[in-house]
From TrEMBL:
GO biological process: antibiotic biosynthetic process
Organism name: Xylanibacter ruminicola
Domain Alcohol dehydrogenase iron-type/glycerol dehydrogenase GldA: 8-163
Name the UniProt record assigns to this protein: Alcohol dehydrogenase, class IV
Pfam families according to UniProt: ADH_Fe_C, Fe-ADH
């Protein structure tokens, strides 16, 4: 069972019993207000930050080598989703008998044996978006292809939520990461894998964001930051149960093709996909049926403070306009549509409650770009 701590002051409790910490941190680390707390945590540590925002397999392997050479016995990830994902990959590679091979095809698509209790793992997110601190999934790239690494053994044992780190985030990054959290809450709720537990995490994610997003984005309000960070954590917990759906599946190539940050890319997809699903309930593939799905759409809308799903879709679009998060524009649209349509992760489409065929995916991309 994961332990959630509120505040960096609990770092010592999370580190109890460890002797040497492997700190995985991203490029924001030197500028963090909690850097002093980490450097003075009273436990010997080794820093590893030699990776890019979309981490590569070779970079993860460097981290694995350094962890083993320095004989660390625990991991502390400090940063956004990429830093936490790198830490997860390192932990899995160190613990599994398959080593680094567990991170790449063909083993990456299986659940290799991993006893996570052997290496205590603490995550301190410095953005409020992915909720990666509370998931057993990680993303990295091998030979240009995105790999999703999934294993129960890499779920952090402790997550420390310290909202003050959000205070100095660039405004655009705050917008993108917050929208990623909101989209995760929405997608998890309508996923074919949703459960009573995931519903509640989704509801909390959406309600907290809708109640606080303006103060968080436009006023840099401290209390709003607390609530948005909590919302992102709930979103991670929801997705940890259900996995993501079509909006995420369609977002990844938008990120690489148009250099859109992940949260921005997901957020331009979701309203178009939701509108299509609402107008095509007869294509429902959720075993619970189309009437059930329409009720879920209504529940999501109500959590957003809207009367119905149509109003909720309009609300999402207005949010994007207010934050100046525009859709990408292509000057070679036909070529891009072919590339985008061929890129979609079919596994994530299986989690979507409405069937999306090739022609539909192309149509949706046409509306997005």
């Amino acid at each position: 069972m994961q332990v959630i701590y509120n505040g960096i002051s609990h770092l010592g409790e999370a580190l109890e019993g460890v002797t040497k910490v492997f700190v995985v941190c991203d490029s924001s680390y030197p500028f963090l207000n909690i850097k002093h707390d980490i450097e003075n945590m009273g436990t010997p540590h080794v820093l590893f930050s030699d990776f890019t925002p979309n981490p590569l397999y070779d970079q993860v392997c460097k981290g694995v080598d350094l962890f083993q050479i320095t004989k660390c016995d625990s991991i502390l990830a400090v940063g956004g989703g990429s830093a936490i994902d790198v830490a997860k990959c390192i932990k899995l590679a160190v613990l599994t008998k398959d080593g680094n091979a567990a991170l790449i095809p063909p083993l990456v698509s299986t659940r290799v044996e991993c006893d996570g209790s052997k290496i205590p793992f603490i995550a301190i997110p410095t953005t409020a978006g992915t909720g990666s601190e509370s998931t057993h999934n990680a993303v990295m790239y091998y030979e240009g292809a995105k790999q999703t690494v999934t294993n129960e053994g890499v779920l952090p044992d402790y997550a420390i939520l310290e909202p003050s780190v959000l205070k100095t985030l660039p405004l655009y990054q705050k917008k993108c990461t917050m929208m990623d959290a909101l989209c995760q809450g929405i997608e998890s709720w309508w996923s074919v894998n949703s459960t009573e537990e995931s519903y509640e995490y989704s509801r909390k994610t959406i309600e907290l964001i809708m109640e606080n997003w303006r103060k968080y984005i436009f006023e840099n309000d401290d209390e709003a930051a607390v609530q948005i960070m909590l919302a992102a954590n709930y979103g991670g917990k929801a997705i940890n149960i259900t996995q993501t759906t079509a909006a995420h599946a369609m977002s990844y190539k938008l990120t690489s093709l148009y250099k859109l940050p992940h949260g921005h890319a997901v957020a331009v997809c979701l309203p178009e996909i939701w509108e299509y699903m609402l107008n095509n309930l007869d294509k429902c593939i959720d075993k619970r049926g189309s009437d059930y799905l329409l009720d879920i759409f209504m529940d999501i809308a109500h959590a957003m403070g809207c009367e119905n799903p149509h109003q909720a879709i309009v609300c999402l679009r207005h949010m994007m306009v207010d934050m100046e998060l525009w859709n990408p524009v292509s000057d070679r649209k036909e070529d891009d549509l072919l590339m985008l349509s061929a890129s979609v992760n079919l596994v994530r489409l299986k989690n979507n409650p409405i069937e999306l065929k090739d022609k539909t995916i192309r149509y949706l991309y046409d509306t997005i770009i």
